[in-house]
Amino acid sequence: MADRLDQPRESRRTLLPRVRVGEDASGRVSESVARFLGTPRFILYLTLFCALWLAWNADWGPERLRFDDPANGFTALTLMLSLQASYAAPLILLAQNRQTDRDRVQAEQDRQRAERNLADTEFLAREMASLRIALSEVATRDFVRSELRNLLEDLATEQAGAGDEPGPDSPRGDARHRSTDR
After folding, report:
1. Cα-Cα-Cα-Cα dihedral of 144, 145, 149, 150, to 10°?
2. Is residue 182 predicted with pLDDT exceeding 50?
3. Rounded to an integer, what is the distance from CA 51 to the centroid of its chain?
4. Angle at which helices 23-37 and 75-136 pack, to 10 degrees?
5. Is there a contact between 42 and 36 (Cβ–Cβ < 8 Å)?
6. What InterPro entries is this protein classified in (predicted)?
7. CB distance 65 to 130 below 8 Å
8. CB 53 within 8 A of CB 70
9. Is the predicted pLDDT of residue 181 greater than 80, yes or no?
10. Containing structural domain, residue 62
11. 174: left (phi > 0), else alpha (psi -120 to 50), else beta?
12. Radius of gyration of the chain (CA)
């Protein structure tokens, strides 16, 4: 296969094999470290570490086993704390970036859920309006009762007016006439 000029040349000679770590795995590790760095336990451990370091190198440790000279301002301790801080800062930033990505996804899901809820609410509002319109044309119980009351009053008025002269519908009228009139 011919070499391509638009891509970098791969080196076949490597001293160390390439380790491929998934972005998700490194992100989980960085989050767990950043989570630990933000705990009171870490502050306590770091305080104990510094106190022991200072005590060993200042007074407690044998003279020949001391490795950080107080006359130089505990240079090794300063370098150790700088090294810890130089690793902690990028790990915290990685964890924050992952959290930002999760927040972005959550916000998008919340937005989509809100849109669906709005669409459902608007649909239900339209359905309620159409039901109200449909119900306005339906006779209600009070309307039917008032119509029946009016009919009873009309019948009572007719019977009272017809009570003066016997007719086929009157109680004094002929039974044959009543059955044929209806």
Report:
1. -30
2. no
3. 45
4. 110
5. yes
6. DUF1003
7. no
8. no
9. no
10. 23-128
11. beta
12. 47
Per the domain annotation, does 168 fall within a domain?
A: no
Alpha-carbon distances of 146 from 9, 140, 160, rounded to whole Å: 96, 10, 21
Residue 157 resides in a domain: no
> Is 68 within 8 Å of 74 (Cβ atoms)?
yes
Instruction: Count the Cβ atoms, other than its own, within 10 Å of residue 74.
Output: 18
Q: How many CA atoms lie within 13 A of 161 on its CB side?
A: 6
Query: How many CA within 13 A on the CB side of residue 50?
Result: 14
* Residues with Cβ within 8 Å of residue 58, at least 6 apart in sequence: 70
Question: CA dist 43 to 39, 48, 112, 136, Å?
Answer: 7, 9, 41, 72
Number of domains in the chain: 1
Q: How far apart are the first and last CA of the chain?
A: 107
* Residue 151 within a domain: no
Contact 21, 29 (CB under 8 A): no
Q: Does the residue 57 lie in any domain?
A: yes
What does the alpha-carbon distance between residue 52 and residue 50 come to, in Å, rounded to a whole number? 5
User: Which residues are CB-contacts of 169 (< 8 A; sequence separation ≥ 6)?
Assistant: 162, 177, 178, 181
Question: What is the reported pLDDT for 5?
Answer: 73
Q: Report whether pLDDT(118) > 60.
A: yes
